[in-house]
């Protein structure tokens, strides 16, 4: 069994985030401009067989954890076909999905039966009107119902990601945290990353995770905990005594975690990005379509993976929206 390919700084790269579409049924303030994005032509997007073949070639090199992302991945038809194909690849031991949760009540059981292990769900408010304002869409959507649907389907641990924005939803921090008292949810508060076309959100909207933890200390005796058993991310976890779930904080702005980065990203059009906010990417789609091996391209790409991102200098690697790479 491979111990994982290593980049030029000795980090073991075992986690691949796979964007299956650049489209989304939301237009969240921090993720996508309300208008102006040009969608990828269908012919440029990898089909499910191509995605599975890329993973099959990378698994022997140490890639063993996958996350399906978008855009919003559940809007791509018959996603369970890809889930089934990826879960069957030897060496893959964790397959998860990032979603806004709108379609989980409809598809959670189907995805679980196809081989999906767990979900991360974005939920930036518990208030219907505010959900519509942040997403800039008019879905009748209850994130708690969606999270419970995933739990019933066995897609645990259930992680709920909350992008905290000052003056927009930071007054709900305590409400989200209280969910963990009774529900086995792992609520993760993520520092806002002002990116690309979302210039209406600035540094003034960033709520540092230290402030989030200070506020939550007033809710109860918050103590460090191990957090969920499965996961690939950089969250630090805390819990209230006797709570069914936990609290996580993710700090891309106040404390970067690049030194332990174990991930790369495959875009919907088949480019391997070695850093979320880096300039470096490698075209895997065209060599794959010519019938060439992409294993060596992967190894060479890791030799150029940067030490850290440049988001703090407002360099975003050409991204106009986080939806282009699934975060």
Structure commentary:
24% of the residues lie in helices and 18% in strands. By secondary structure, the protein is of the alpha/beta class. The protein has one domain: Aldolase class I (TIM Barrel). Strands 9-10-11-8-7-6-5-4-3-12-13-14 form a twelve-stranded mixed sheet. It has a two-stranded antiparallel sheet with strand order 1-2. Strand 3 (15-19), helix 1 (48-58) and strand 4 form a beta-alpha-beta unit. Helix 1 (48-58) packs parallel to helix 2. It starts with a strand and ends in a 25-residue tail after the last helix.
What number of domains? 1
Any idea of the CATH topology? TIM Barrel
Q: Biggest sheet, strands in spatial order? A: 9-10-11-8-7-6-5-4-3-12-13-14
Order of helices and strands: EEEHEHEHEHHEHEHEEEEEEHH
Question: Which overall shape is indicated by the principal axes computed on the Cα atoms?
Answer: globular
Q: What structural category do the secondary elements indicate? A: alpha/beta
Shape-level CATH architecture: Alpha-Beta Barrel
State the end-to-end CA separation: 29 Å
- Give the radius of gyration: 19 Å
Determine the mean pLDDT: 89
Q: Biggest β-sheet: count, sense, barrel?
A: 12 strands, mixed
Could you give the count of β-strands?
A: 14
The proportion of strand residues reads: 15-25%
CATH superfamily heading: Aldolase class I
As residue ranges, the low-confidence spans are 313-317
Helix content percent band: 10-25%
| Structure annotation, total helices | 9
CATH class: Alpha Beta
């Amino acid at each position: 069994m491979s111990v994982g390919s290593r980049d030029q700084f000795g980090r073991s790269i075992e986690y691949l985030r796979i964007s299956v579409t650049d489209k989304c049924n939301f237009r969240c303030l921090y993720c996508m401009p309300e208008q102006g994005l040009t969608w990828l032509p269908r012919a440029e997007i990898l089909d499910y067989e191509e995605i599975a073949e890329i993973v099959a070639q990378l698994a022997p090199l140490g890639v063993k954890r996958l996350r399906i992302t978008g855009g919003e991945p559940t809007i791509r038809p018959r996603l369970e076909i890809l889930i089934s194909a990826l879960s069957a690849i030897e060496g893959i031991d964790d397959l998860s999905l990032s979603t806004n949760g709108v379609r989980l009540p409809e598809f959670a059981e189907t995805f679980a039966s196809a081989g999906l292990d767990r979900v991360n769900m974005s939920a930036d408010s518990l208030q219907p009107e505010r959900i519509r304002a942040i997403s800039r869409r008019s879905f009748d959507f209850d994130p708690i119902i969606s999270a419970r649907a995933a739990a019933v389907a066995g897609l645990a641990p259930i992680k709920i990601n909350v992008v905290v924005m000052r003056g927009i939803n930071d007054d709900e921090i305590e409400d989200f945290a209280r969910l963990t008292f009774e529900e086995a949810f792992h609520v993760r508060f993520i520092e806002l990353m002002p990116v690309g076309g979302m210039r209406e959100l600035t540094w003034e909207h960033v709520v540092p995770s230290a402030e989030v933890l200070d506020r939550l200390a007033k809710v109860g005796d918050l103590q460090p905990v191990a957090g969920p058993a499965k996961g690939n991310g950089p969250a630090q976890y805390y819990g209230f005594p006797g709570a069914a779930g936990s609290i996580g904080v993710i700090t891309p702005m106040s404390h970067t975690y690049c030194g332990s980065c174990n991930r790369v990203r495959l875009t919907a059009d088949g480019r391997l990005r070695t850093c979320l906010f880096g300039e470096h990417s490698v075209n895997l789609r065209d060599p794959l379509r010519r019938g060439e091996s992409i294993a060596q391209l992967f190894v060479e790409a890791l030799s150029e993976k940067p030490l850290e991102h440049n988001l703090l200098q407002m360099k975003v690697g050409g991204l106009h929206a986080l939806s282009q790479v699934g975060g």
